[in-house]
Amino acid sequence: MGRNNLTRPSEFILLGLSSRSEHQKPLFAVFLPIYLITVVGNLLIILAIHSDTHLQTPMYFFLGILSFVDICYVTVIIPKMLVNFLSETKAISYGECLTQMYFFLAFGNIDSFLLAAMAIDRYVAICNPLHYSTIMNHRCCVLLLILSFCIPYLHSLLHIILTNRLIFCASNVIHHFFCDDQSVLKLSCSSHFVKEITVMTEGLAVIMTPFSCIIISYLRILTTVLKIPSAAWKHKAFSTCGSHLTVVTLFYGSISYVYFQPLSNYTVKDRIATIIYTILTPMLNPFIYSLRNKDMKQGLTKLMHRVKCH
């Protein structure tokens, strides 16, 4: 569908992962279970943390919030994608597209800040165990939580305002399965120099600030743990951080591959890589945290036992 010098097209067409009709139902059959597993898995994490008094600590407080955000994150993307798999038009209105983009950016960055908060929590627990309860008090946790939500929401708002000022023409077909910032930007025929500069400066700062916190925290943790003579204590310290580091690697690894490159290099491979941090990481998080965490395993076991008893 062509568009000529339209400031605001009435709708966009989401091409999805494949434009072939024979691929749509198999893709629907793949992503529907993924969505259900993600929602149920993260919901179980939230319920386990809420119902077990042993999990009422800052670390699991942030994990519970992370699970809630992950449910919101995939809900912004997957339901519309599932509808489009079974639809002929695959259309999304202009307003709906910007709304999806806004919440996608917001929840994605909230994830990033929550991972940083969890890294800070592990740093204090391992490097300053005697002062842990004093430093990671209720006020500190609430402050970290407020920052984790406010900064991403303001960041997303800035990007949506800049996107809304663009002029679109030539085509309204988005070569992606959702309204990704980079894909929509490629459709603009007006100058998007300001937008790209904002992505590479303010956007980079918002992403790198929590990432830097994570790197610094774990370098300090590594330095502290290596000085400890007890092998058993070293193993315990690394095991409490292992699940978190796995999630951080998956999340930041895929984001770096997709976004830290020029807009002109954005290809089909990036669509596939996007699946890792938008869909697979939120689905894997409950498994990673429950399988590698003894306390979480016990919490889930208690929850299942309670459900069976009722």
UniProtKB/TrEMBL annotation:
Subcellular location: Cell membrane; Membrane
Membrane topology, record value: Multi-pass membrane protein
Keywords: Cell membrane, G-protein coupled receptor, Membrane, Olfaction, Receptor, Sensory transduction, Transducer, Transmembrane, Transmembrane helix
Stretches assigned to the G-protein coupled receptors family 1 profile domain: 41-289
Transmembrane segments: 27-49, 61-82, 102-120, 141-162, 204-226, 238-260, 272-291
A cellular component annotation (GO) from this entry: plasma membrane
InterPro entries: GPCR_Rhodpsn (IPR000276), GPCR_Rhodpsn_7TM (IPR017452), Olfact_rcpt (IPR000725)
Chief location bin: membrane
SUPFAM superfamilies found in the cross-reference section: Family A G protein-coupled receptor-like (SSF81321)
Domain of life assignment: Eukaryota
Family: Belongs to the G-protein coupled receptor 1 family.
Main function: Putative odorant or sperm cell receptor.
Protein name as catalogued: Olfactory receptor
Taxonomic source organism: Zalophus californianus (California sealion)
